[in-house]
Design brief:
This protein has helices at residues 20-34, 65-68, 71-74, 78-97, 111-119, 133-141, 154-160, 203-213, 226-233, 249-258, 274-281, 294-298, 310-320, 325-335, 338-354; strands spanning 2-6, 38-44, 56-61, 102-105, 123-127, 147-151, 169-171, 191-194, 217-220, 241-245, 261-264, 286-289, 302-305. With 380 residues, it is of the alpha/beta class.
């Protein structure tokens, strides 16, 4: 198949990954290409140097937008909205002219789902975040036999469609390459925390809980909100609680595998939890904040605490350290392998292609809902 993969453009789709959405798109492209598909990733141009072999990049923007318009400063502003609208209008034009068999949309912009509904393009839109009004309206506007939707968990299906999901919606769980996260039979008694360091990820709670539990902790990840790190995380750092930097895949896997538990501390409606399954693959049980889809993903290989309760999380951490490491690995092998994810994705692509209309459906949208840039640039 000729597959266009529309990625999020806030950060480069390149290791070391800024977060789960970037990692998911990169690995999806890599493994689809490995299966012989012709994959073009619509991403920021600075993703090209880190793209897997055999995968092409089509630049939606020359540079990821967070470099020029940091999200925590520009989110919701007219300047960022206009910047992204112009970029995605060009992307819509190029998707329309690209003659792809199917489009897998991992982005968050409102134009792309409506493009599929308007132009009869087979598309799978994967919803990696909880619903927000602009994208929710685009999704609900775009349901059609050739437009499929996936979420990463059953919890998120109910969030996006509280009154009942359409037949075109289903779960496509994230998956990881188990070879990238080798199993380690024994930990060293410490804990790790991995992810974007930002208030919704609850890094400060992990630090507080580790201190209360008397368990050494290393924090890994990109510092997305410097003010938050300085005010809420740095004061907890010590000889026992340290920041280990932002590591790429193999180095991060080695460091994670040494530990005895992962602290996973979402303070939002967590759609999945890629960091959790990566750590579980190395054998780590997970001490979790019980938010969103966390129980659905971690299951009985973790312990749970309510939000904003470091004392309860400290007890959960102490209990998690004694749990079975083989059971953690087995759960990922059973439910969250990349092979399982790609098999399911290929099935959904086939469903979308089979639903393609014989003639263009002619559904129209207002200019603020869908804009396609003029011109017909053929992809190289």
């Amino acid at each position: 198949m000729r597959i266009a993969l529309v990625a999020h453009i806030r950060h480069p789709i390149a290791p070391p990954f800024a977060g789960g959405m970037e990692a998911h798109s990169w690995h999806l492209a890599r493994h689809l290409a490995d299966r012989g598909h012709e994959v073009t990733v619509f991403a920021s141009g600075d993703s090209a140097s880190g793209m897997p072999a055999g995968v092409r990049v089509h630049a939606v923007l020359p540079v990821h937008y967070d470099a020029e318009f940091p999200w925590h400063r520009y989110h919701g502003t007219t300047v960022l909205t206009d910047h992204l609208d112009h970029a995605y209008a060009r992307a819509a034009r190029d998707l329309l002219r690209g003659r792809f068999d199917v489009i897998h949309n991992n982005g968050l912009h409102r134009f792309i789902p409506r493009l599929a509904a308007s132009e009869g393009l087979p598309m799978v839109t994967s919803l990696h975040v909880p619903p927000f009004d602009v994208l929710r309206r685009a999704v609900h506007d775009s349901v059609a036999p050739w437009v499929r939707f996936t979420t990463t968990s059953q919890v998120q299906v109910r969030r996006w469609w509280p009154d009942g999901a359409p037949a075109e919606a289903s779960v496509l769980s994230n998956g990881i390459d188990l070879a990238d996260w080798p199993y380690v039979p024994q930990g060293d008694g410490s804990a790790v925390w991995c992810g974007r360091i930002t208030p919704t990820k609850g890094t400060h709670l992990a630090a507080q809980a580790a201190r209360l539990a008397g368990v050494p902790l290393t924090i890994f990840g990109t510092i997305e909100h410097r003010d938050y790190f300085e005010a809420e995380v740095r004061p907890h750092l010590s000889s026992a609680i340290r920041y280990g930097g932002h590591l790429a895949g193999p180095a991060l896997a080695r460091e994670v595998g040494k530990a005895s538990a992962l602290l996973f501390t979402p303070l939002w409606d967590e759609p999945f939890g890629l960091a959790a399954i990566e750590a579980m693959a190395t054998g780590l049980p997970v001490a979790c904040i019980d938010m969103g889809a966390v129980r659905e993903v971690v299951g009985d290989t973790g312990t749970y605490a309510p939000p904003h309760d470091p004392e309860a999380l400290a007890e959960a951490l102490k209990a998690a350290i004694g749990m079975s490491r083989p059971a953690c690995r087995a759960r990922v092998e059973r439910h969250f392998s990349v092979q399982r994810m790609i098999d399911r994705a290929e099935d959904i692509y086939t469903e979308a292609i089979a639903g393609r209309p014989v003639r263009r459906p002619g559904r129209s949208f207002a200019p603020h809902e869908l804009r396609i840039a003029p011109g017909a640039r053929q992809l190289a």
